[in-house]
Write a structure and sequence with these properties.
It contains three helices and two strands. By secondary structure, it is mainly α. It has two domains: 36 residues, no CATH class; 36 residues. It is elongated. It starts with 14 loop residues before the first helix and ends with a helix.
Length: 85
C-alpha cells in the first residue's frame, strides 16, 4: 500500500524509525535504496541469493524424492536439457 507522508524539518530525525516500523525491519534485513533526481525509494531487499538458492534446492530435492527419481536419472535429464537448448 502506498501512502504520502509530509515530514517537517523538525521530524526528519524520526524518519529512520518510521521507515523501520513501516517495513517491519529486523536486524538481519537489508535495504535497497533507489536514488532519483529528487527522490529516494526505500525497499526491503529480498532473501540473500544463497538462502534463496538453498530454499529452491531443498524444494527440488524433495520433489525428486517424491517422484522416486534416482540421481543418475536427474543427471541425464539435465544433460539432455542443456544439449537441447
Amino acid at each position: 500500500m502506498s501512502r504520502v507522508k509530509t515530514v517537517r524539518a523538525d521530524e526528519i530525525g524520526d524518519l529512520g524509525i518510521e521507515i523501520r516500523e513501516h517495513l517491519a525491519l529486523k536486524a538481519e534485513d537489508s535495504l535497497v535504496l533507489v536514488e532519483g533526481e529528487d527522490f529516494v525509494l526505500v525497499k526491503r531487499a529480498g532473501a540473500p541469493a544463497r538462502e534463496r538458492f538453498e530454499e529452491i534446492s531443498s524444494r527440488t530435492q524433495s520433489r525428486l524424492e517424491r517422484l522416486g527419481l534416482e540421481p543418475d536419472e536427474v543427471e541425464r535429464a539435465v544433460r539432455w536439457a542443456r544439449e537441447s537448448s
